[in-house]
Amino acid sequence: MMQEARSAALSRKKTPPPIAKSGGHTATGTGPLFQHYQAAVQLLQQGKYEKAVAGFEKLLPTAPPEIKERCKMYIQTCQRQLERSRLTFLTPEEHYDYAVSQLNTGYFEEAREQFSEILASYPGADYALYGLALLDSITGRSQDCLSHLARAIELNPKNRLQARADNDFQGMADDPRFTELLYPEIP
Q: Model confidence over 44-87: pLDDT tens digits?
């Protein structure tokens, strides 16, 4: 009797339904749709952004909603990377302005990369160190903020006055090390 119940239960066991149907193929990882999707993702990972965009755009008309949303997200990522690779700056200050625009729009990792690129070419660029300090303050990296701001002040003491009035350092206001950096004791 127990054996019959077990056999009946096993015969009723269902396989999970496919994610969605598209063009007669399921998006479970075996159909042509999924293979094209994987190929486009691989192109993205290889840095072949233009080809990846073409691949994702080809999928959009027939893809199920969940794949379609991922394709749109990846297309945006590719376009951002393509735009970034086309960027050229005439001066380090122009490069700094771009980095600040990335910071202000919430692209923190992009901003960090831009500030770091400036510093790689111009190690004495106090404004890039100040920008990194702002970014570190905004993203909660207090030790990095203090290090970058200290170096910016060392290179250009006017950065101390600017930091005192800068609202972007509000997250650091309660840190005694920050206060000591901005208001050092005069001997």
A: 888 888 899 999 999 999 889 989 999 999 999 888 888 776 67
Domain that holds residue 133: 92-182
Backbone torsions φ then ψ of 62, nearest 5 degrees:
-110, -5
Query: Could you say which DSSP state residue 187 is in?
Result: -
Stretches in the chain below the pLDDT threshold 70 = 1-30, 85-86, 186-187
Identify the helix (H) or strand (E) that includes residue 34: helix 32-45
Residue 21: enclosing H or E segment and its boundaries?
strand 21-22
Instruction: State pTM to two decimals.
Output: 0.57
Spatial CB neighbours of 62, under 8 Å, sequence gap ≥ 6: 22, 23, 33
- Whether residues 98 and 53 share a domain: the answer is no
Q: Are 138 and 108 in contact (CB under 8 A)?
A: yes
Both 126 and 99 in one domain: the answer is yes
Q: Are residues 135 and 80 in the same domain?
A: no
Per-residue confidence (pLDDT) for residue 123, from 0 to 100: 94
State the angle between helix axes of 92-104 and 108-121 in degrees (0 to 180), rounded to the nearest 10.
160
Residues 6 or more apart whose CB falls under 8 angstroms from that of 185 comprise none
Please give the Cα distance from 60 to 67 (Å, whole number).
8
